[in-house]
Design brief:
It is a single chain. With about 375 residues, the protein is an alpha/beta fold. It folds into two domains: about 250 residues, Glycoside hydrolase/deacetylase (TIM Barrel); about 80 residues. The protein has 16 helices and twelve strands. Strands 1, 4, 5, 6, 9 and 12 form a six-stranded parallel beta sheet that branches. Strand 4, helix 6 and strand 5 form a beta-alpha-beta unit. Helix 5 packs parallel to helix 7, helix 5 crosses helix 15 and helix 8 runs parallel beside helix 10. It is globular, with a radius of gyration of 21 Å. The N and C termini lie far apart (about 45 Å). It binds zinc ion.
């Protein structure tokens, strides 16, 4: 029964998407995209685009909502150029949004987390197109030359999807890894994370566990580490990019937002201190909620720390009527067709899509915790 309902649900979603796409195509052909794009309404609004990663390997197939193929990212930049959009540095864009003097077709580009692929894949392309970007950098893992533990484990398990493997007696790794379904991969990942937490493994300990998992899976872990898959940028890379004009802003030190004020403030302060060590002349007053998750009590805490803007992952164009500490963004993913992306650039997307809300509480599976230790 539930399988039938599930299939019907998928079919309905496909049908709605097809209809939506048809509507967008019609609106574009009728000149509505151009009309909205050049309207007074659009001129008062800013589209803040959010990216996470640009794949080094095949991460876009592993997590399409987080990773995008480099070629697709380049197509997006071309659409921005062809559509004569004005891509502004984030700080200037937000100032002008509230001052009411945004240029026509304003856009700001942001990246969450600051993984190495920003350095290797996104930055060179942004540079080629002459576009500014802000990286909301989480900093805890910057000092380790290791991949982010839970992400690399999830990625490696996905690489062996469809298989059943025997780990035997291997501490922390399930004896049998049944990776034939997403649920099987997720259960193996839970096992690894629980072990790491219970044993209070250090970062080195977690890295060793990931390396042992790779052996069981028959994957070349040193090669993944060498390629910097799922690693954050290192301090020297952040320093270099900051010198080249990349803007680095707050995303908490450990990619989390504790519900206790003093712990929350510590996250902001540690994050800011680390960023200033790497990018000394930066003015760090902009924030992005990790995983887009916020609570209203965070707002006065952010103000207290001198934060002037904060972005969520709720879909929308930022307007001067929005709270500066709850600015919506377009989370651009591989699943958006060029037409859908253009609908957002023009502003039409704000009328044809539902606004996605991401306020707490969310099921824990939707939260991305970068660091477990404090
Ligand atoms: Zn994040």
């Amino acid at each position: 029964m539930s399988v039938v309902a599930g299939t019907a649900g998928v079919q309905l979603a496909h049908m709605l998407r097809y209809l939506r796409h048809g509507t967008l195509r019609l609106l574009k052909n009728l000149g509505i995209f151009d009309g909205v794009k050049n309207s007074r309404w659009r001129r008062q609004r800013l589209l803040i685009i959010c990216y996470h990663g640009i794949a080094l390997e095949d991460e876009h197939e592993w997590r399409p909502p987080l990773y995008m193929h480099a070629q697709l990212f380049e197509q997006r930049l071309q659409l921005l150029r062809d559509g004569k959009y004005t891509v502004l540095p984030l700080a200037e864009a937000i100032e002008r949004l509230y001052r009411g003097d945004l240029p026509p077709r304003s856009v700001a580009i942001t990246f969450d987390d600051g993984t190495y692929d920003f350095y290797a894949q996104a930055h060179p392309r942004l540079k080629e197109y002459g576009l500014p970007a802000t990286v909301y950098q989480t900093t805890y893992y910057c000092d380790f030359n290791y991949p982010v533990f839970h992400l690399i484990c999830s990625y490696m398990l996905w690489k062996r999807r469809g298989q059943v493997l025997r780990a035997g007696e291997n501490a922390g790794i399930p004896q049998v890894l049944d990776l034939r379904s997403a649920a099987g991969q997720s259960s193996a990942l839970d096992h690894l994370l629980t072990f790491a937490r219970q044993e209070r493994l250090s970062e080195e300990g977690k890295n060793n566990l990931a390396a042992r998992l790779a052996l069981v899976l028959g994957l070349d872990y040193p090669e993944l580490v060498r390629k910097r898959v799922l690693q954050l940028m290192r301090p020297d890379e952040i320093a270099q990019l900051a010198r080249e004009g990349v803007d680095f802003q707050l995303h908490t030190h450990r990619h989390r937002t504790p519900l206790e004020e003093n712990l929350f403030l510590r996250e902001i302060r540690d994050n800011r201190r680390k960023l200033l060590e790497m990018a000394a002349n930066s003015v760090i007053t902009h924030f992005c909620y990790p995983s887009g998750v916020y609570r209203f009590e965070f707002l006065p805490w952010l103000k207290k720390e001198g934060v002037v803007s904060a972005t969520t992952c709720e879909s929308g164009l930022a307007s001067p009527y929005d709270s500066a500490l709850l600015l919506p963004r377009l989370v651009d993913t591989s699943s958006h067709t060029p037409l859908e992306f253009e609908s957002w650039l023009s502003g039409v997307g704000a009328f044809t899509s539902r606004r996605r809300r991401s306020k707490l509480p969310l099921p824990p599976t939707q939260l991305i915790e970068i660091a477990d230790s404090s």
